[in-house]
Amino acid sequence: MDFDRIREKLNILADAAKYDVSCASSGSDRTNKAKGLGNASKMGICHSYTEDGRCISLLKILLTNHCIYDCAYCVTRKSNDIKRAAFKIQEVVDLTINFYRRNYIEGLFLSSGIFKNADYTMERLVAVAKKLREEENFNGYIHLKSIPGASDELMYEAGLYADRLSVNIEVPTISGLKLLAPDKKHEDFTKPMLKVKNEIVRFQTERKIIKSTPKYAPAGQSTQMIVGASGETDKDIMYSATYYYKTYQMRRVYYSGYVPVADDVRLPAIGSQVPMLRENRLYQTDWLLRFYGFAVNEILNKEHPNLDMDVDPKLSWALRNLHHFPVDVNMADKRLLARIPGIGMQSVEKIMKARKFRRLNWDHLKKIGVALNRAQYFMVCDSRHWERRDLDAEKIKGMILQTSSGKFRNLYGNQLSLFN
Ligand code: SF4
């Protein structure tokens, strides 16, 4: 084996894979210093979370960064003048097994540019997973990227070997896709998604009857959207995410702030990176929709097409809907409790249990873990005063921001001073 060439390929293809966030964290460039332990530099190792909540490290690489397409937002697009490389199938298998044996990784995240066509590329991704499972008896985690436009037969096979499959929708709107990735059609993404969804349902149903039915993509499917490349609003993004969750039973939608990599009039200028805070707010909204019973139009609508950057989306919604408050924590149902800013789902469960035995007051709620600096303006409990009194939304927001210790608070120093 030519180790120098493999190392060079690893550098190129791990670096190209870092723009994909759909397996969580990656992109660290911390190097090993003077006999320190570990090295996170360009080794292509990232972390992900399994279904049972374990954090695992994955070898995260592209099979190739050659591509026949020219998507404007992508560093791998064919018109970009960059160093290209491609792994052979056996090289990826060997790297995965060697890294696994050395305890560097617990699994593989494999994506790819498109070689000749979708099926030719997908066939190679599937071949890697198949070899790992059948020849190497590898039982670690495998996340395969599905290539847009890949055939149903290959998607079927992919799910037999991979734990998770994902097709990155990338541009949240159809008009944005036409503008930035004119070679791709919307159906190129949705067809493989639909196939994977149908197979997951079919296998699950069969397993209920025949216990020996193999698992098909047991960690489900996910997708990623690039945020801020095509001028879409947060409303466009979250409506689109909701559609994918509902229609294709996505396990996760990931939001990745666009990193300007090209000088192109269709794209934001180089240097105008999407603030991390916008990604953060989108993830918070995603959480509210999936676990807190919010409907997307309650948070984002014609009047409010973008999320409030000062405060989290639940607080923002509460400030616009003061008529729903105060909520009595000793009486309210689960759905209403979950709408109080500063009360998470774990606290909701604890409140439901605790109030069977006694009426709760501020001290009890503090011990339960309720963030009273926010919650106090929106609820009443077994204490005499109600903190909101006659405050309006602006005043409440100002008072909360003053007592907030969030990591983004400094960004809003100027705005906070308005409330002093
Ligand atoms: S098809 Fe994928 S890899 Fe190729 S240019 Fe488009 S986004 Fe990049």
Report on this model:
With 420 residues, this protein is α/β, with parallel strands linked by helices. The protein contains 16 helices and nine strands. It has helices at 3-17, 89-101, 118-134, 152-161, 174-180, 186-209, 234-248, 276-291, 296-299, 313-320, 334-337, 345-354, 362-368, 372-375, 393-403, 413-417; strands spanning 45-49, 55-62, 107-111, 141-145, 164-166, 221-227, 252-257, 327-328, 379-380. Strand 4, helix 4 (152-161) and strand 5 form a beta-alpha-beta unit. Helix 7 (234-248) crosses helix 8 (276-291). The protein is globular, with a radius of gyration of 24 Å. The model is unreliable at 25-33, 36-42 and 411-420 (pLDDT under 50). The structure holds iron/sulfur cluster. Iron/sulfur cluster binds at residues 67, 69, 71, 74, 76-77, 113-114, 181.
Throw out a few tags for this protein.
420 residues; alpha/beta; two-stranded parallel sheet; 9 strands; disordered C terminus; binds iron/sulfur cluster
List the topology elements.
Layout: H1 3-17, E1 45-49, E2 55-62, H2 89-101, E3 107-111, H3 118-134, E4 141-145, H4 152-161, E5 164-166, H5 174-180, H6 186-209, E6 221-227, H7 234-248, E7 252-257, H8 276-291, H9 296-299, H10 313-320, E8 327-328, H11 334-337, H12 345-354, H13 362-368, H14 372-375, E9 379-380, H15 393-403, H16 413-417
Parallel strand pairs: 2-3, 3-4, 4-5, 5-6, 6-7, 8-9
Antiparallel strand pairs: 1-2
Helix pairs in contact: 2-3, 3-4, 4-6, 7-8
Bound molecules: iron/sulfur cluster.
